[in-house]
Amino acid sequence: MAASLFDSAIYRDLVTDRETAALFSDSAEVRAMLIVLGALARAQGAAGVIPEISAGAIHRASMELQIDPGGLARATGRDAVAVPELARQFRDLMQAPEHAQWVHFGATSQDIMDTALALRLRQVLARAEDRLAALMLALARQAEAHATLPMAGRTFGQAATPTSFGAVAAGWGGALPALADRLDALRPLLLTTQLAGSAGTLSAMAPETAQAVRAGFADALGLGPARQGGHAVRQPLAALASWATEVTGSLAKMGADLMLMTQTGIAEVRLPASGGSAAMPQKQNPVMPSLLGALAAQTAGLNGVMQAALVHRQQRDGAAWISEWLSLPQICMGLVRSLDVAADLARDLAPLPVRMAANIDDGTGGIFAEALQVRLGETMPPTEAQAQVKALCARMRAEGRGLPDLAREAFPEADLDGLFSPAAQLGLAPADARAFAASARERAEAMTRVA
Fold first, then answer.
1. For residues 105 and 204, what is the distance between their CA atoms, to the nearest angstrom?
2. Residue 272 lies in domain
3. Which InterPro entries does this one have (predicted)?
4. Which residues contact 48 (CB under 8 A, 6 or more apart)?
5. Whole-angstrom Cα distance, residue 408 to residue 397?
6. Number of domains in the chain
């Protein structure tokens, strides 16, 4: 097995989508860093920091030159960062030393790498937003279409009271609109340039031009201006990791429920086709719901690393920075894959009403105990009603008789009409399902319009 499933030719289509994975390839990183070097030169030329003719030559070369990522390996193994060797090869390939001498002027490796990361995170966030909108729309359709479809609500794995499948779908998506709002807040924090120089002071440029270079650099890349605090401010990346953990955790709850709802003996939903077994051809394993759980667990573990990496000692810190490299790409790939899988499941899964009805009425009617207690409490003290129903439930288990028959026998004068109907005991489930559908659809459509 490969050291990382995300890089495995065998497993990559299970745990990631290829377009997101491509953003974290060596070639994508090199291309992004070249773009950043070109934009930096362009901004410096406009501000008079370097000759404009050299700035133009560097910018053109950054668009045209190709650098083999493998050719950076030996030097990066020594220096930890690829930028020094990248800049050296860039200068050599330009074959114009009078211009090439200005490549990477005044910046430091972390400026180039952090800004190149922001360029790629812009695409990651766009993909995540697109899939989040698709997921909310799919769950909204399920919630609305099945707002009144009764099924057993379960607590501690036991039947509790009836709910609706629409309300369950709404529960899966309940956190998503707020998470979408938080993505909007994260974007301007993450999508910024970094230009602070060797120790955060940008001292290689005159103070009166340094700010102009920063502004031009950001404009050239379509990113926000460099954040205050320099290289050691890592809260935006930690916030992204935390957000991804909350998203994947929400989706894992959906996956866990679907695993239970598809198990033998329950079988309340049908999943999109997947999960065949070589040895047991009758099986359709809930592979995609299981994957949601695995990716959430992986993301949560890596989030711990990202939070620990907040501690960048002094002005820059190698250990914390390398920890980010080891963790953030997998978090991003797992995030987008989780959203993709959840959206496919939500769109194509089908509830099985006959099975849901059978699981409500198991022959005992015990699921209606709370409703009976409430009805009896209309004509007797609530504590007495509770005691009476508790006694009936004990008889139900001991005698093997149904609670509805025992109730009618014990309380022949009580009005129990309609009480033992699942549809009559849904409470706020239909309204909650429809309310979620409306809010999720509105939020998703707003995201789509902006995109």
1. 8
2. 5-357+430-450
3. Fumarate_lyase_CS (IPR020557), Fumarate_lyase_fam (IPR000362), Fumarate_lyase_N (IPR022761), L-Aspartase-like (IPR008948)
4. 209
5. 17
6. 2
